[in-house]
Amino acid sequence: MSNRYITSHFPLISIMLFSLSFALYVQGFILEQLVDYGLYDGMREFFSENGIKLTLLFLLVLIFFMVFSALKLIADTVFQLSMLFFSKDEEGKELIKVRTGSWIFLLCGIISLFLAYSWLWLLILFILACFIYFTYFVYKVSDSISFIGMCGMVFFHVIFWTGFLLLILYAAIKLYNSFIASLP
Asked: Has the keyword Mitochondrion been applied to this entry (predicted)?
């Protein structure tokens, strides 16, 4: 019995696992900062310790879930645009082949739970999962793309994601500089 929709829930579970992993790390960091600044004891007068931790974890998971969901939406759009521009496949059969690559993110999401103590390892694992998935994607669709098309598709992805990250970095630096300039 083979059903092509058997792995359709893997992206959602992967997003939830990565969101939980990043949220656990950030929760620990925020709690350390609250203790260092002396705010944690004041918060415990109004909420229980578990209540603070669970509320903070819920909000952080929600924020990371939104970020990873947006990144998945953007990545799917870029993948399909690259297939539109560079692939000979007009029926979408190549995209069906690629969907089995969701196992990559699922396995890395499970591993990320064990690496929730370090933001660097989490980030490395996430970038590694993206790179492995992209390699898998290129390998699976290589039958329907010429060598020039393959080079164009890889170049398209590299340019898009580099530009996207540089734009985010520029916006963050601009916001930081305006914040620093507004201080007395």
From this structure: no
pTM reported for the whole predicted model: 0.88
Dump the DSSP string for 141-162. HGGGS-HHHHHHHHHHHHHHHH
Domain that holds residue 28: 10-78+92-144
d(CA 176, CA 122): 25
- The three-state secondary structure class of 184 is coil
Q: Same domain for 132 and 110?
A: yes
User: In whole numbers, what is the pLDDT of the chain averaged over residues?
Assistant: 90
Task: Give the Å distances, CA to CA, from 105 to 78, 79, 112.
Answer: 18, 16, 10
What average pLDDT does this structure show over 135-147?
Answer: 87
How many domains does the chain fold into?
A: 2
Query: What digits encode the pLDDT tens for the residues 154-175?
Result: 999 999 999 999 999 999 999 9
Closest Cα partner for 87 from 156, 140, 145? 145
